[in-house]
Write a structure and sequence with these properties.
By secondary structure, the chain is an alpha+beta fold. The protein has two domains: 234 residues, 2-Layer Sandwich (Cytochrome Bc1 Complex, Chain A, domain 1), CATH 3.30.830; 184 residues, 2-Layer Sandwich (Cytochrome Bc1 Complex, Chain A, domain 1), CATH 3.30.830.10. 39% of the residues lie in helices and 18% in strands. It contains 15 helices and twelve strands. A seven-stranded mixed β-sheet has the order 1-2-3-7-4-6-5, with helices on both faces. Strands 8-12-9-11-10 form a five-stranded mixed β-sheet, with helices on both faces. A hairpin with a 5-residue loop joins strand 2 and strand 3. It is globular and about 60 Å long. It starts with 23 loop residues before the first strand and ends in a 17-residue tail after the last strand.
């Protein structure tokens, strides 16, 4: 739900791993001089995929549980249900109240969290290894025996409504919500996980219970455990805990067709001194074979911070914005490509022109050898930082499995980034950047801006 907090941190959202045919397989990664990250993969009798990485340097254990139960699974007119269900998991079970859960977690010095994103919902536990049994008992209780108390469902629902009300004073969030609507319409990716005011007002406890019954199943779960653990003991604990839990499989998600008649421009009038701009269109899915060329291309265009072309043009040369960035958000289904920035109301038109110019330029000419080398050095050099803690390792393993990227993903990522050529960057730009199809959202003082009424890059320099 932390939409648009930073376009740079979302790159990590595009990581994840693959399922193997064997029930248990040991995998060793050696990512770019980083410490080796060994793990074993197990398929439990319940259908759960369990990934275990023993990291005994610190007496701490991290457990990450992913369910294919993100907001894309929200029923029509019940947007926000996945998020509400995840939120209420920790608010009471058949034998523990919300207060008791909090007290027990605090006593253990542990952390317990639940949330829902676009593609998946997750539950996380961080606990000292000496308290692992007690921590797992609480985790299993909220996953297998949630009671969804009426009062807690209502409280969480009201909190979501209050958060959406507060969005009205956040121009970045307003712009992002409208941008999703322009790109995806009334389809599963067309709303933030929190839902809409209208849909959340109508959610009830029965909806939460039905969503849980349908999607919170062991065969729909991926579990990653990292830290000071014994693999056989962990396998045994999860095998026994999940054996009798809500059996059955969940149908594969089928993404509906995107409407072809969506508007190109949305303008939201607010008494602001600056205009918030988002330009973009539909992007790619995470399994796209050109993902690595796209990653390098986007780094050069606008994902590389102060070294990117957009920063050079919009900030350095034009003096129009402090920051500007581009990103591809790659989900299970095609996500978005977007450029976001803030600029003075009077300079919004010039900023849009510069963004369009840079998108066209990277589609028309080869990037320089220096740009390519700098992008590859940064992307490969920073990659090991994604594996420098137990929390990051657990999240990495679970998402790599969810997105089915392969056991050797860490090695392959670095090799494939290094293999990208200037010609690959040009081909990716021409294939996946569509200036004439860009959507535009502007939130600002419309009396002080000059904004196009149709596709912002349809024509021009």
């Amino acid at each position: 739900m932390r939409r648009l907090a930073s376009m740079f941190r979302r790159a990590s959202h595009c990581l994840a791993t693959t399922a193997f045919l064997t029930a248990s397989l040991t995998c060793v990664w050696k990512p770019c001089n980083a410490a080796t990250v060994p793990f074993t993969r197990h398929v439990l009798s319940s259908g759960t995929v369990l990934l275990v990485s023993e990291q005994r340097t610190v007496p701490m254990v991290v457990v990450q549980v992913l369910f294919d139960a993100g907001s894309r699974r929200d029923p029509r007119n019940k947007e926000g249900l996945a998020s509400l269900t995840a939120d209420v998991l920790t608010e009471g079970t058949k034998k523990r109240s919300a207060t008791r859960i909090n007290e027990e977690i605090d006593f253990l010095g542990a952390r317990l969290s639940t949330s829902a994103d676009v593609d998946f919902a997750q539950a996380g536990l961080t606990v000292l290894s000496k308290h692992l049994d007690a921590g797992l008992d609480i985790l299993f209780d909220i996953l297998l025996h949630p009671s969804f108390p009426e009062a807690e469902v209502e409280r969480r629902r009201e909190a979501a409504l209050a958060a959406m009300t507060a969005e009205q004073d956040n121009p970045g969030q307003l712009a992002y919500r409208r941008f999703l609507e322009l790109v995806f319409g009334n389809t599963p990716y067309g709303h933030p996980p929190i839902g809409t005011m209208e849909s959340v007002r109508g959610l009830r406890r029965g909806d939460v219970m039905e969503f849980y019954r349908r999607y919170y199943r062991p065969a729909n779960a991926i579990v990653a455990v990292t830290g000071d653990v014994s693999t056989p003991e962990i396998v045994d604990r999860f095998e026994r805990a999940f054996a009798e839990w809500n059996p059955g499989r969940v149908a594969d998600f089928v993404y509906p067709e995107i409407p072809s008649t969506l508007p190109s421009v949305a303008k939201i009038d607010k008494p602001l001194t600056q205009t918030n701009l988002i330009l973009g269109h539909r992007g790619v899915s995470r399994d796209n074979p050109d993902f690595y060329a796209i990653t390098v291309m986007n780094f050069i265009l606008g994902g590389g911070g102060f070294t990117s072309r957009l920063v050079e043009s919009v900030r350095v040369q034009g003096g129009l914005a402090y920051s500007v960035a581009s990103q591809f958000t790659a989900n299970k289904a095609p996500g978005t490509f977007q450029v976001s920035l803030q600029t003075k109301n009077a300079s919004a038109g010039e900023a849009i022109t510069r963004v369009c110019s840079e998108i066209r330029r990277i589609r028309e000419e080869l990037v320089s050898e220096e740009e390519l080398s700098n992008a590859q050095l940064y992307l490969t050099g920073s990659f090991p930082l994604r594996l420098d803690s137990n929390t990051k390792i657990a999240s990495f393993l679970a998402q790599v499995e969810f997105f089915q990227l392969g056991a050797d993903y860490a090695e392959q990522y670095i090799q494939r980034i290094r293999a990208v050529t200037r010609e690959d960057v040009l081909r990716a730009a021409r294939t996946y950047l569509h200036p004439a199809d860009l959507r535009l959202v502007a939130v600002g003082n419309l009396r002080e801006t000059e904004l196009p009424d149709r596709a912002p890059c349809a024509e021009g320099p």
